[in-house]
Amino acid sequence: MFLPDCLTVDQQDRLLIGGVSVLKLASDYGTPLYIMDENQIEQNGRAFLSALRTHYGENGEIAFASKAFSVTAMYRTLQRIGLWSDVVSGGELHTALKAGFDPSHLIFHGNSKTRHELNFAIFSDVGRIIVDNIEELALLDQLALENNKMVQVGIRIRPGVDAHTHDFITTGQLDSKFGVPIEGGLALDFIGEVLQKRNLTLASLHCHIGSQIFDVEPFAFTADVMLHLMADAKACFGYEIPELNLGGGFGIRYTETDDPRSIDACIAASAAAVKASAAKYALSLPRLFFEPGRSMVAEAGITVYETVAVKELPGLNIKNYILVDGGMGDNPRYVLYGAEYAAVLPSRVHAPAEQTYTVAGRCCESGDVVVASCALPTVKAGELIAVLSTGAYNYSMASNYNRVPRPPVVFVKDGAARLVVRRETYDDVCQCDL
Predict the structure, then answer these.
(1) Which residues contact 236 (CB under 8 A, 6 or more apart)?
(2) Residue 317's pLDDT is what?
(3) Which of 242, 276, 292 delimits the end of a domain?
(4) Chain segment 148-201, per-residue pLDDT in tens
(5) Cα–Cα distance between 307 and 347 in angstroms, integer?
(6) Which residues are designated catalytic?
(7) Pair 120, 96: CB distance under 8 Å
């Protein structure tokens, strides 16, 4: 059985996260419950930054992809350890600013930003706004003029790279809603359009080829594609784009069969490719950005549920179901794209497996599954179950489907716990109703 680094087991075979008893946390805060190890988040963030400094030098930054986990406590942690962050909506921007995050270290992404969001970003002096399409470019230039601002922008490029992930989380190929394709000279033409805008400064090219990628080769290949485009831009327009943002997408371990590369290996391969391509195309080394999200927070988090009932129908050759007090409302990833997870019983982590179960949720949908298949000891109603590696895209995707309140988030660090997001109440669920 694998356990992420933040998890340990005491002498009574009970699960600890960040040195704190999961059973006690569930007793203190109730279930369902998100628990995040803040030390693990900090260690991952520092590991990315250290790898970048080792393999590329000081001319680069790590920006957290905050769609993975956007709460005020997270932005405070990022600022404390010296990282940038991206945001993809006015809501994420507001959350970062409310946390006191330096707006000049924010990168605003999104393929369909509204006029209000662009104005908000300009007014807030966001560090970079990544432009996705020609209509957005024209609107952004107009708003920058109206606000009397010079805006630092990047361009979202589709590099045409297939990273071999699920179709729903692959974003760099030609057929995608994101960015400007390289094919047909469209990206080069777009660079020319940006350079003609009076109130915009072209600071960077950006790309993102997908998520949960285990190989380093796609990142290295993408780096060469992007540097080639930068060389073409220099040749055509006499302008050397100073920054390259290679996005994120580094894979993590959800189950025993996952085999992700280390943080150091991912950054090393990409940095080496950038250096080699810059030399090949006679370019200065660009300021290099990466945007890890899942790989910073996923394995730092677990979700704890209480078993409401167990359905075992012997002799009928159908699944055994553990029915829990949460589900797709707090983790919709199985419903979205069949995401796989591992689970353990916090009260007896290493007890021998006796049954194969499907962990199913409380929502009125047949597809409401949290873990499709897991081997566990025989489970009884009232027992707790911990689903591992849920720190990314669980809280951030949570909903009030069936009018179920969203769970709280607890941070643990050095043996202590603190509530960073309180549990919603029924009144919270209907507070916007008129």
Answers:
(1) 188, 191, 192
(2) 66
(3) 292
(4) 999 999 999 999 876 554 343 344 455 667 789 998 899 999 999 999 999 999
(5) 13
(6) 364
(7) no
Q: What's the mean pLDDT when you consider all of the chain? A: 94
Contacts 24+ apart (CB under 8 A), 309-318: 309/381, 310/357, 310/379, 310/380, 310/381, 312/355
For 261-285, what is each residue's pLDDT tens digit? Answer: 999 999 999 999 999 999 999 999 9
Domain end marker among 261, 292, 323: 292
Strand ordering across the sheet containing 20-21? 7-9, 15-17, 20-21
CA 361, 362, 366 angle in degrees (round to 5)?
70
Paired tokens of 428? 């919270």
Q: What domain range is 18 assigned to?
A: 7-37+298-429
pTM of the model: 0.94
The length of the chain, given as a count of residues:
434
- Report the C-alpha gap between 236 and 243 in whole angstroms: 18
Q: What element of type H or E holds 301?
A: strand 301-311
Which one-letter amino acid corresponds to residue 345?
A: L
Tell whether 322 and 285 lie within a shared domain.
Answer: no
pLDDT category of residue 2 using cuts at 50, 70 and 90: confident
